[in-house]
Structure formats: C-alpha cells, structure tokens
Design goal:
The chain is built from six helices and eleven strands. By secondary structure, the chain is α/β, with parallel strands linked by helices. It has a single domain, classed as Metallo-dependent phosphatases (Purple Acid Phosphatase, chain A, domain 2). Strands 1-11-10-2-3-4 form a six-stranded mixed beta sheet. Strands 5-6-7-9-8 form a five-stranded mixed beta sheet, with no helix packed on it. The mean pLDDT is 96.
C-alpha cells in the first residue's frame, strides 16, 4: 500500500496522476513499474487515472527500442472499463535524437550523450552513415517520438521534462528551457505558474519543494525508476 503524505498542490476529486521519471532505456524497470501502477489501480480504483511519462525514454540504458515499443502498447489494467489515459512527454534526449537523424552534423553530440546505445538497441551498426540512421529505425517508433508534446497540466501541477524559466509566463516558455533547463529553475524559491513535476536532473531520491517535484532518480545509473502518485492534496511514490 502506498503511503500518502501532504502534497504541495492538489488535483480535482476523482483524478489520480502517476508521473514516471526518466527511463533512459531501462525497459525492465519500466515493465516492473507499470505492473506496480496496475496493482495500485486494481487495489484503489479511481474515477480517472492518468499516467504521465516525463521523457528521456532513449539513450544510455540498454533497451531504448524496447522502451518505445512498450509505450506504444496499451497499458495493462484490470477491469472492463477504459484504462488510464497515457501522456508521453518529450525529453531532451528524444530531441537530440531527432536532430541527429535530421542533420548528420548533429550526430556526434547525440552519440556523446548515449545515442550509441539507442542505435544498438535498434540494431543500427555504428559504422552506418548518420544520414542512413533514420531509415533503420521503425517508422512507428519515429512517428511516436516526433509526436511527443512538451507539457501537460492537471489541477495545480504542470508536468514537463526539465522545468520552466522562472518569472516567465507559461505562454512565453521556450522549447529549449522546457527540455534542457537546470539553473535558474532548480534553485528558484519563488512561485511558478504551478507546481512543476519534472525529471532531467538525476538525484538519489525524489526532490520535493513547494514549487517543484523532481523525480529523475537515475535508473540507468543504478538508481531507481520513480513514479510520483498524486491525488487530491496527497502524494506518494512507487519505485522499481
């Protein structure tokens, strides 16, 4: 049973959100965490459930292709009704991948940040020319990655991969910041447009502040894959 404590914001009655941090090719951990979410939903049914994956599905870990394939499949759930709504957000590593596939001159930057393991997971030989990589990645995987949105809002929370630029209206936030920002976001102590739930910056355990919750706990580094569970004015965690 999940232990729920007071959260820094709230969701509407009847809504529960499961937010999953950076997967980075750790398909086994993702499968385990999805099973834990399914068990929680079976044990504690709710009117509406959302599962928000915060991006960085590819690179560094061993099975980026398997992670993308998992996210393309229907979520396993008990009961006859509709399953949870799945929202998959863009991470900076997906953005790097798309840039490298579109422009060969960007390939070294992606490879230096774990893109080599992603190519290996799709059985792309590293000796292949960068301009030929896109043709060897399954089209449905590429379409999935290209279609990822940058943010999702629910109740008093905003879900985004890296964070927001402080003191900047939401309508003026840049794609670059939402995918890449660390400072001045991480140290900012003022109010943001909502409590921001993010990944991108690995920590040994979830970071809970009055204005943000960070849930990248370094799955590919030997840490855990973390899921933040939000409902009403409470929060808890599942990990694998």
């Amino acid at each position: 049973m999940i232990t729920l404590t007071l959260a820094p914001a709230s969701l509407p009655d009847g809504l529960r959100v499961y937010a999953v941090g950076d997967v980075h090719g750790c398909s086994g951990r993702l499968h385990v965490l999805h099973r834990e979410i399914a068990r929680d939903l079976a044990a504690r049914p709710v009117a509406e459930a959302q599962i928000v994956h915060l991006g960085d599905y590819v690179d560094r870990g061993p099975d980026s292709a398997g992670v993308i394939e998992t996210l393309l499949q229907p979520f396993p759930h008990a009961g006859d009704g509709p399953g949870p709504r799945i929202i998959n957000l863009m991470g900076n590593h997906e953005d790097m991948m798309l840039t490298a596939l579109a422009r060969a001159e960007a390939a070294p930057h992606w490879l230096a940040n774990g893109g080599d393991t992603s190519l290996e997971s799709w059985d792309v030989p590293l000796r292949a020319r960068a301009r030929d990589w896109a043709a060897t990645v399954p089209p449905r995987h590429l379409a999935f990655i290209r279609g990822l949105p940058l943010m999702h809002a629910a109740g008093g929370y905003l879900f985004v991969h890296a964070g927001l630029r402080p003191k900047t209206p939401l309508t003026r936030q840049s794609r670059l910041d939402m995918l890449w920002i660390r400072e001045p976001f991480l140290s900012f102590d003022g109010d943001l447009s909502a409590v921001v739930v993010h990944g991108h910056t690995p920590e040994s355990e979830p970071v809970i502040r009055h204005n943000r919750i960070g849930i990248d706990t370094g799955a590919y580094l030997g840490g855990t894959l973390t899921c933040l569970v939000l409902e009403s004015d409470r929060m808890g965690f599942l990990q694998s």
